[in-house]
Write a structure and sequence with these properties.
Elements: H1 2-5, H2 21-29, H3 43-50, H4 58-72, H5 87-91, H6 95-100, H7 105-117, H8 128-136, H9 143-153, H10 165-175, H11 184-188, H12 195-207, H13 215-218
């Protein structure tokens, strides 16, 4: 269960693909894998994190998440823990109320609309492509948000997080030019069903200088 919540892979063998595989495995075995967010127990919580593709500092984002959850859910008896939020927990709020708790206006409106109109937990029973297509039809959710929801909310490793800022920087360094967000999909394509998880190891390895950069690009 801990491995599922933390999005930890059972083995790194399936990641043995592409030119950077051995370096990524070295980084992973060296303890550089630190997921920025643990898996969300419910999809509505994950949607709250990533609607409108905001990239706040992790500490600020987690503080806002805690504040909203504390306001939306009761505390368990005898603990300081709150019960897991459900879509109904957020659907009862007006976007302006969420704005006062720290969510941006458009982000709060997206969250309320999703919780009121979409059966988020039903997405778990759908294939990843179908779940992603359903989310992408919602206003306020782009490819980056959908990729993160698939990874952190559904636990689907095959959906790459297209347009991730870290991947844009890595891809730009490897190609020696500024790349567009959609080009990051090509960076993850060799990893197939592990594209979402490969992003985590690639970025960790890149920070440590373990991903080879062509000389012409590094010059």
């Amino acid at each position: 269960m801990a491995a599922v919540v933390l999005s930890l892979p059972a083995t790194l063998a399936p990641l043995d693909k592409g030119k950077c595989a051995s370096r990524i495995q070295t980084a992973a075995s060296g303890g550089v894998y630190r997921p920025r967010n643990p898996r969300a127990s419910l999809l509505c919580q994950c949607a709250m994190r990533h609607a409108r593709e905001l990239r706040e500092a992790g500490r600020i984002r987690r503080a806002i998440e805690r504040r909203v959850i504390h306001a939306a859910t009761p505390v368990l008896d005898g603990t300081r823990l709150n019960t897991p939020p459900t879509p109904a927990s957020f659907a009862r709020f007006a976007p302006a109320e969420l704005r006062r708790l720290g969510l941006g206006a458009r982000r709060g409106a997206t969250l309320v609309r999703l919780c009121r109109s979409v059966d988020l937990e039903r997405l778990r029973s759908l294939p990843t492509a179908a779940a992603a297509d359903r989310l992408e039809r919602e206003r306020g959710l782009g490819p980056w948000s959908v990729g993160v929801v698939c990874l952190e909310g559904l636990g689907r490793f095959e959906r790459g997080v297209t347009g991730d800022l870290g991947l844009v920087k890595l891809c730009s360094a490897r190609r020696g030019r500024r790349v567009e967000a959609w080009e990051t999909a090509e960076l993850l394509e060799p990893y197939g069903e592990w594209a979402g998880l490969a992003r985590v190891y690639l970025l960790s390895a890149h920070r440590l200088g373990l991903v080879p950069i062509p000389q012409r690009a590094a010059a």
